[in-house]
Automatic annotation (TrEMBL):
SMART domains for the chain: HATPase_c, HisKA, REC
Modified residues (4-aspartylphosphate): 55
Domain of life: Bacteria
Name of this chain's protein: histidine kinase
E.C. code: 2.7.13.3
Gene3D superfamilies from the UniProt entry: 1.10.287.130, 3.40.50.2300, Histidine kinase-like ATPase, C-terminal domain
Length: 491
């Protein structure tokens, strides 16, 4: 059996050699004997002993208690103090370092051995308990993630049916207040799904179950898109939405989707808690490696209610808002800023907050190093993107042709033939000829689908220009689970 290894830190030469001989006689392996904190640190960098025997009085300005605290924090190695000091002040300082033993000089060899064995036994028990708790926590996180994922799917299937039939009713019911009731049902369903998505994303961030997806993109286009998405909410509250983007901001290699998610959360938060004035998005950069990397800074500034200094840390905690009364007034479950901060830190950045109560808030994203795309690489990437690439999937396609007149059968068969010619063995397509049948098909399948662009899909299939009923297209595109929906009105 491998002998127990010990590092002796003792400034008295005679005591140190006596300790070495006593320990070796009992079968322990003494790795080294040192007399100061720097020498002990060097020894610990080279090898990791099972235990450190530590005197409180050492050579140099650093005493044994300060060294013991560093050993516990940096190395997690059990320590046993061996000292002549037993006064209350020294004992209190020593206890704060969580030692596994405290032996007074002069010691007896048998006492030394018993103290070491008890210390190692206690350390192993605590180590095994920590490992067991970590394993249980890992299993619990996995079960929670699986539970949330299952809940998401269990809710998504009936919710898709509810929203699908509500959207169908929108075309058949025009009179008020029935139409308003339908709109309220749809909006409530969207809020429910968004809340569930936030809880699942927060759970993934806490468990580290996230994947980075770095790609080339133009951040100016992204910021413009995010601003457009938030503009409707800003207009509803009569809030100005202003963007100030540096013209020097280059194309980046970064996680575009995660950055978009972060900015959406920050903008939603800013608009939600701003009753008048404006929300401003600012983006700037500075070179950290010429032609290779930049520091990216994006700020979201509002003229809202602001955050008291005592509440600034709490707003980043999950399911928390600065004032519980705000939850009742503004809604939400208090996950937006927690998700934004979690995603930011996961991408290697930081989210800073500056705020004064009643004066508004500034949330600043800082990514210290983001790779940039050279001009020729960006052009090559754009040229390499085809106008349309079919997605390889094993899940069914849903193609919807609305209000088909005769010859209905010939058109459906034409679609099937054209798709087999273009994408043989790539997609499995379900083509339905009537919108109610589409809703029933969607309810029956109840799966997740990848969404593809409607117009390009139709153009590829039919090789001709189609005149779409735009309202129908928007309605069908609102389904989150549809691979593709094709809508056309025939004269």
């Amino acid at each position: 059996m491998k002998p127990i290894t010990i590092l002796i830190v003792e400034d008295e030469l005679i005591v140190a050699h006596s300790l070495r001989e006593a320990l070796q006689d009992d079968g322990y392996e003494v790795l080294s004997v040192v007399d100061s904190a720097p020498a002990a640190t060097r020894a610990l960098e080279q090898t990791k002993p099972d235990l450190v025997l530590l005197d409180i009085t050492l050579k140099g300005p650093i005493d044994g208690i300060s060294l013991g605290q560093e050993i516990q924090q940096r190395y997690g190695i059990p320590i046993v103090y061996l000292t002549a000091y037993s006064d209350p002040e020294t004992l209190e300082r020593a206890k704060k370092t969580n030692p596994y033993g405290y032996l007074l000089k002069p010691y007896r060899v048998q006492e030394l051995k018993v103290t070491i064995e008890i210390a190692l036994h206690r350390y192993r028990e605590e180590r095994d308990e920590r490992k067991h708790l970590q394993e249980e926590a890992t299993i619990a996180r996995k079960l929670k993630q699986e539970f949330l994922t299952n809940i998401k799917h269990e809710i998504r299937t009936p919710m898709n049916a509810i929203q699908g039939f509500c959207q169908l009713l929108q075309y058949e019911i025009q009179e008020e207040p029935s139409r308003s009731y339908i709109v309220s049902i749809l909006e409530s369903g969207n809020v429910l799904m968004k809340t569930l998505e936030d809880i699942i994303e927060l759970s993934r961030l806490e468990s580290g179950d996230m994947e980075r997806s770095f790609q080339c993109f133009d951040p100016r286009s992204l910021l413009s898109e995010v601003g457009q998405m938030a503009s409707a909410k800003a207009r509803e509250k009569n809030i100005a939405l202003v963007t100030a983007i540096s013209p020097d901001l280059p194309p980046l290699i970064f996680d575009e989707l995660a950055l978009k998610r972060i900015l959406s959360k920050l903008l939603d938060n800013a608009i939600k808690f701003t009753e008048r004035g404006r929300v401003t998005i600012e983006a700037d950069c500075r070179a950290v490696e010429p032609e290779r990397a930049i520091e990216l800074t994006i700020s979201v500034r509002d003229t809202g209610i602001g955050i008291a200094e005592s509440d600034r840390a709490r707003v980043f905690e999950p399911f928390s808002q600065a004032d519980s009364g705000l939850t009742r007034h503004h809604g939400g479950i208090g996950c937006g800023l927690a998700i934004a901060r979690g995603l930011t830190e996961y991408l290697g950045g930081r989210l800073e907050l500056e705020s004064e109560e009643g004066e508004g808030s500034l949330f600043r994203l800082v990514f210290p190093r983001v790779e940039i795309v050279k001009d020729n690489e960006w052009i090559d990437r754009l040229l390499a993107i085809p106008t349309f690439v079919p997605t390889r999937t094993t899940t069914p396609h849903l193609t919807v042709v609305r209000d088909l007149p005769a010859p209905e059968i010939e058109l459906l068969e034409h679609l099937r033939v054209r798709e087999r010619e273009i994408w043989p063995k790539i997609t499995d397509t379900a083509i339905v000829g009537e919108i109610r049948e589409f809703a029933r098909e969607l309810q029956r399948l109840g799966r997740e689908y990848h969404y593809l662009p409607l117009q390009e899909y139709a153009d590829l299939l039919l090789k001709q220009s189609l005149e779409f009923d735009l309202e129908v297209v928007k309605t069908l595109a609102a389904f989150p689970d549809i691979t593709c929906a094709l809508a056309r009105e025939f004269e």
